UniProtKB/TrEMBL annotation:
Organism per entry: Hibiscus sabdariffa
Family recorded in the similarity comment: Belongs to the GOT1 family.
Topology class, membrane: Multi-pass membrane protein
The keyword tRNA-binding belongs to this UniProt entry's keyword annotation: no
Tagged with keyword Heme: no
Sequence intervals crossing the membrane: 12-32, 38-57, 69-87, 93-111
Protein name: Vesicle transport protein GOT1B
Length: 150
């Protein structure tokens, strides 16, 4: 049974996930600082584990359809730790997109309901981006890329 109540463990998990994203952002801003990136990754993974539980986290990362994302995220984290942060972040970004690709439609609905910024996400191009992100990305589907060049 899934519990949607917000207890202290879930609040701490959301806070850790937020700090993980913040430290990863700072690591990118400070020219791929491997210390900040590694700290951001550890905080994000521990935050996800606290938010949804350790068993659910292991089940999520060990699903057969998530193996590609899990492996690329793990290898990217390894590259960040050994000192190759750019390659590591590219692999982690790919792994993140593959792992959480099932959540993009939910995120699109949430972003469309934000009072001030929602109208940006209700336009046709951004709607196609959200629906086509799993099928090669949204930029490829723009009309300029569909032209046949002579």
């Amino acid at each position: 049974m899934v519990s949607f109540e917000m207890n202290d463990r879930k609040k701490i998990g959301l806070g850790l996930s937020g700090f993980g994203i913040f430290f990863s952002f700072l690591g990118i801003i400070f020219f791929f600082d491997k210390g900040l990136l590694a700290m951001g990754n550890i905080l994000f993974i521990s935050g996800v584990s606290l938010t949804i539980g350790l068993k659910s986290t292991m089940q999520f990362f060990m699903k057969p359809q998530n193996f590609k994302g899990t492996i690329s995220f793990g290898v990217g984290f390894f590259f960040v730790v050994i000192g190759w942060p750019i390659i590591g972040m590219i692999l982690e970004t790919y792994g993140f997109v593959v792992l959480f690709s099932g959540f993009w439609p939910t995120l699109a609905v949430f972003l469309q309901r934000i009072p001030i910024l929602g109208w940006l996400f209700q336009h046709h191009i951004s709607d196609r981006c959200w629906t086509d992100i799993g099928a090669g990305g949204c930029l490829y589907n723009l009309p300029i890329y569909q032209r046949k060049w002579k």
